[in-house]
Design goal:
45% strand; mainly beta
C-alpha cells in the first residue's frame, strides 16, 4: 500500500532503475517534493525520499502542491517535475504576484 499518495501525483516506470516511481508533494503549505520506489505498482513501497524543496515553500502563507513527474519530457539523467504554488491569503496576492499559480518546472538529476 502507498500511504499518503496525495490527490495529485504521478506514477511511472523507470527502466534505468527497474522500478516504479511515485512523485508527489509532501505536506500542506510549505511542502517538499518526494519520491517513493517499488518493484511492482502494488508495492511494497519505499518510504518517501525528499528530492526537492521548492523555494516558494520558504515564503509565508504560500501553498505548494500538485507535484508530478514527467518522464515523457525528461532527457538524459534527469526527471522533469512540475508543481504549483498559490497563496493561503487573498486573491489580490495571486493576481499581483506572477511567481504564484503558474506551474513550475524543475529538472531533477537521477
Amino acid at each position: 500500500m502507498l500511504a499518503n499518495a496525495g490527490p495529485e501525483c504521478s506514477l511511472h516506470f523507470e527502466p534505468s532503475r527497474g522500478q516504479w516511481v511515485h512523485v508527489r508533494s509532501d505536506g500542506f503549505g510549505a511542502s517538499t517534493i518526494v519520491e517513493s520506489y517499488a518493484g511492482r505498482p502494488e508495492g511494497p513501497w519505499s518510504p518517501p525520499q525528499v528530492v526537492f524543496r521548492p523555494p516558494e515553500s520558504d515564503r509565508a502563507h504560500i501553498l505548494v502542491y500538485a507535484a508530478k513527474g514527467h518522464p515523457e519530457l525528461s532527457a538524459g539523467d534527469s526527471l522533469a517535475v512540475t508543481y504549483a504554488s498559490n497563496t493561503l491569503g487573498d486573491l489580490a496576492t495571486v493576481v499581483d504576484d506572477t511567481s504564484l499559480y503558474y506551474p513550475r518546472f524543475v529538472k531533477l538529476p537521477r
